[in-house]
Design goal:
Elements lengths: L28 H10 L4 H4 L14 H13 L5 H10 L1 H7 L6 H10 L4 H14 L7 E10 L7 E3 H33 L10 H30 L28 E3 L6 E4 L5 E12 L5 E7 L7 H13 L5 E4 L6 H9 L3 E4 L17 H10 L2 H13 L1 H10 L10 H25 L1
Parallel strand pairs: 1-7, 7-8
Antiparallel strand pairs: 1-5, 2-3, 4-5, 5-6
Length: about 450
């Protein structure tokens, strides 16, 4: 008896349902993104189009936001990838509803509205709070290093900059002397009718390189002053008050190995957990202890987390008028000043005073009373149990961003733009996280 196969007629004309929602099963993530965005206030995304009188109708901003958020939430971060998905992927086509913006249009829309995604991020967190999915009672803070859109090979160390500055200065002076000698010789031979003041191409190249190096040195010095301030060091202070030993360098003077990048000057060389030293940004998240939603973000070019905790808590207070009862953070955030501030605010903090496994951590109760009290608190069974919650509260969302979404490198350059993209990534993760929470 012959085998009967299921019908296969690739040339057969099909009449697809006119209802786009029928193209995807009920409960599909694309429907969740579409419904959520439809409930958000997107007024700021329309401002640029008001009364401009353009003849070519622009793409609907609501559609563009849906495509961008769905792309980031499903691991498609490049504008070219999204443009290709709009042609090939059913979910993207449902969100695009027959629109096929080019990758240039998608890229320009994202670039123009990077700062506006912060407002959507806040609105989604407030929506989650209204639905009882964010309570702000327990917050966990964590940072992660994310690759910058720049190669570490385009960086130069502070020590090398000094050498290059001296070398280029000498070469420029030699070229200027040569030009002056040539001018004098030509004046003697031909008179002074020739101008002779045009800069040679070689001189301009060296001057441009020298200017770039000087600017990079100034950035490193400014960053070092900021880091010294965060550690409690003051200008003119040449000894460590903790141990009385003299500092190895002056206030605001970077180490010779400190580097600055010429492609993305705002980024910095940082040690990552899996890829060694890379050109990165230090991204921060504050995670709500109820359902692991990100409620606040920050991003900087300083590899250290020192001094970031209080600023993040201030952002939560200013944005949502909320102060947590409990705060969890790792050893990177621990310093006497911030621990004292937690006590002043009445926040029950659990901040590791040292790396895990370090049994020798202790602080003088007279010089570092808040740190001493934290050491004693975390030595109790209750303290250890509560601090242990940090691993699965705040480290998990950073893991989801890198492993589930696949976001490991920024697409834009410059601190302000990168901050905007980090807000977009965290917004996309929150939206993805809300789908299973709302289904319960």
């Amino acid at each position: 008896m012959a085998t009967t196969f299921r019908p296969y007629e690739p040339d057969q004309m099909l009449l697809l349902s006119p209802d786009l929602h029928d193209w995807l099963p009920e409960g599909h993530f694309a429907h969740h993104v579409s419904d959520l965005v439809d409930g958000l206030d997107l007024g700021v995304f329309y401002v640029a189009y008001e009364g401009d009188g353009r003849r070519n109708a622009p793409y609907e901003p609501r559609m563009m936001v849906k495509v961008l958020l769905y792309g980031y939430a499903t691991g498609v971060f490049s504008s070219r990838g999204m443009a290709r998905k709009l042609e090939e992927d059913v979910a993207f086509r449902v969100l695009g509803a027959g629109n096929f913006p080019s990758h240039r249009t998608l890229c320009e829309f994202r670039r123009r509205h990077l700062e506006d995604f912060k407002g959507l991020f806040v609105e989604v967190v407030r929506l989650a709070r209204e639905m009882g999915l964010a309570h702000f009672g327990k917050l966990s803070i964590d940072g992660t290093k994310v690759r910058a859109n720049a190669s570490k090979r385009k960086a130069m160390s502070y020590g090398r900059m000094g050498e290059e500055e001296r070398r280029l200065g000498a070469e420029i002076e030699a070229l200027l002397k040569q030009a002056r000698d040539t001018d004098a010789e030509e004046d003697a031979r031909f008179g002074e009718s020739l101008r002779g003041d045009e800069l040679p191409e070689e001189l301009r190249r060296r001057e441009d390189r020298l200017a770039a190096i000087i600017a990079a040195k100034e950035r490193l010095e400014a960053s070092q002053r900021e880091a010294d301030d965060a550690r409690g060091r003051s200008p003119g202070q040449d000894r460590n008050p903790k141990g009385g030993r003299p500092y190895k360098r002056a206030y605001g003077e970077p180490e010779d190995k400190a580097q600055s990048n010429f492609t993305d000057p705002d980024s910095a060389i940082m040690k990552t957990s899996a890829e060694g030293f890379q050109q990165c940004y230090n991204a921060q998240v504050v995670v709500d202890g109820e359902h692991q939603l990100i409620v606040a973000t920050e991003l900087g070019s300083n590899a250290s987390d020192q001094g970031a905790m209080v600023g993040l808590l201030d952002e939560v207070k200013e944005t949502f008028d909320a102060q947590p009862e409990t705060v969890l953070a790792d050893a990177g955030y621990c310093n006497e000043r911030d621990l004292s501030e937690l006590e002043v605010r009445g926040i029950d903090g659990y901040v590791a005073p040292g790396r895990e496994g370090n049994k020798t951590v202790s602080r003088d109760p007279h010089t570092h009373p808040a740190t001493h009290r934290m050491v004693e608190k975390l030595a109790t069974p209750v303290g250890r149990e509560r601090y242990a919650q940090r691993k699965w509260l705040s480290e998990a969302p950073n893991g989801w961003i890198k492993e589930v979404l696949g976001f490991r490198r920024f697409s834009v350059r410059g601190l302000d733009k990168v901050r905007g993209e980090w807000d977009l990534v965290c917004l996309a993760l929150n939206i993805k996280r809300l789908q299973p929470l709302l289904a319960v």
